């Protein structure tokens, strides 16, 4: 079974434009993100748009040796479907590029669990019920099911948010499996990049605490010991689907 990671990236983010191209510790957040994903040993594909604003994403990804698939900005489901076909994937790990500190071991655990079953209708995630910090999220599913969603989904939200056709079980036969964090509940922490305050936290973690080399448990421990870090972005509300 050929499983690959597809990460979606674009420069036209609304709350923090070109956020993945901002830098911390001498690298863009996109480069940090791709470095972490590469540590899984899985193929990594960057799914971006055909917009000219996304040329820097294409250039950075290509320079680092990661293939890029370009498609619709709003119909992200079709973008993923195109990447799946181009690379002949049997299984897909979906992540988003605003997670520069995603833990490769966390992703690998999910992939191992998916491989152990490998059912065509299985959907594995660690955020159906949140226990991990935001920024560690992944979803894993069969390529066949995503291609079926691409063929059948008509709701704009399903086209934009890629996997809602699967995890909302619109076909009625999906098996949903949530893998919680064995370290307890760290869902109060935001290690994702969406606002300037998120950027301040992530930059501090990378430049002052060596976060680029740390795993999820290490990062949670730092956040627990330094409430002033949590205070940097604890007020940020996650954007709802459709916003």
TrEMBL record:
Pfam families: CTP_transf_3. Gene3D superfamilies: Spore Coat Polysaccharide Biosynthesis Protein SpsA, Chain A. GO terms for molecular function: nucleotidyltransferase activity. InterPro entries: Cytidylyl_trans, Nucleotide-diphossugar_trans. Keywords: Nucleotidyltransferase, Transferase. The keyword tRNA processing does not apply. One of its GO terms (cellular component) is cytosol. This is Acylneuraminate cytidylyltransferase. It comes from Kribbella flavida (strain DSM 17836 / JCM 10339 / NBRC 14399). The lineage of its organism: Bacteria, Bacillati, Actinomycetota, Actinomycetes, Propionibacteriales.
């Amino acid at each position: 079974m050929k499983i690959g990671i597809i990460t979606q990236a674009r420069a036209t983010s609304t709350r923090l434009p070109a956020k993945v191209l901002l830098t911390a510790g001498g690298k863009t957040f996109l480069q940090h993100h791709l470095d972490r994903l590469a540590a899984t040993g899985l193929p990594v594909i960057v799914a971006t748009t055909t917009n000219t604003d996304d040329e820097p994403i294409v250039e950075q990804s290509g320079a680092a040796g990661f293939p890029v698939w370009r498609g619709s900005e709003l119909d992200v489901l079709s973008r993923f479907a195109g990447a799946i076909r181009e690379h002949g994937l049997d299984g897909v790990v979906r992540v988003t590029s605003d997670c520069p500190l995603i833990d490769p071991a966390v992703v690998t655990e999910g992939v191992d669990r998916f491989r152990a079953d490998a059912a065509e209708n299985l959907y594995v995630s660690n955020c159906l019920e949140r226990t991990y910090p935001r920024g560690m999220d992944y979803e894993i599913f069969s390529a066949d099911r995503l291609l079926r969603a691409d063929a059948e989904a008509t709701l704009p939200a399903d086209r934009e948010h890629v996997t809602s056709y699967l995890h909302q079980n619109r076909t009625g036969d999906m098996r949903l499996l949530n893998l919680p964090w064995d370290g307890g509940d760290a869902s109060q922490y935001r290690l994702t990049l969406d606002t300037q305050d998120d950027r301040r936290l992530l930059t501090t973690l990378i430049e002052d605490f060596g976060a680029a080399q740390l795993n999820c448990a290490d990062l949670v421990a730092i956040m627990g010991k330094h409430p002033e870090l949590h205070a940097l972005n604890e007020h940020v509300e996650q954007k709802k689907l459709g916003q």
